[in-house]
Amino acid sequence: MRAMERIGMLIGVFAFIMAAIYGTWTSSTVLGTEWVGTIGLILGGLLGMMIAWYLWMTRRRLDRDPADDPLGEIDEIQGEYGFFSPHSWQPLFLAGAAAVCFLGLAVGWWLFIIGAFFAIPALVGWTFEYWKGPNAL
Questions:
Q1: Which of 7, 33, 44, 117 could form a disulfide with 15 if both were Cys (CB 3.0 to 4.6 A apart)?
Q2: Torsional class of 79: left (φ above 0), alpha (ψ -120 to 50), beta (otherwise)
Q3: Residue 83 CA, distance from chain mean position
């Protein structure tokens, strides 16, 4: 996890340096500073720093991370990762409905409404898939 933390810091520092260079470079034009790119690079730097901070906080809570040990094994990782459904069709339906929704943003609101009509039952079905029925836990 320490290596991933360093990559996040590297991304953040790189984006901040590029924002400073980009802001300085575009301020010398006739029209003035180009703010969209500068703010985008600053937000990219903040994103990298946020990832690095999250990984640092997570690393502090763990006793020892096997990813930092060159001789570490995968079964040494402590804690549960959660429950992952091995046979669920709901994510496929939700992805199709989301694709129709995003296409609706480009084509027209009528298509977005059709996508939302299919997305809401898919999301509810995925959320409550293991509460009732043949797959109940």
A1: 44
A2: left
A3: 19
Q: Which amino acid is at 42?
A: I
Query: What single-letter amino acid sits at 110?
Result: W
pTM of this prediction exceeds 0.70 = no
**Which residue shows structure tokens 């029925």?**
133
Name residue 6's amino acid: R
Q: What pLDDT, in 10s, does the model give residues 119-132?
A: 999 999 888 888 87
> How far is Cα 96 from Cα 56, in angstroms, rounded to an integer?
36
Q: Residue 135: helix, strand or coil by DSSP?
A: coil
Structure tokens at 57: 């906080």
- pLDDT of 73 strictly over 90: no
Rounded to the nearest integer, the mean pLDDT of the chain is 86
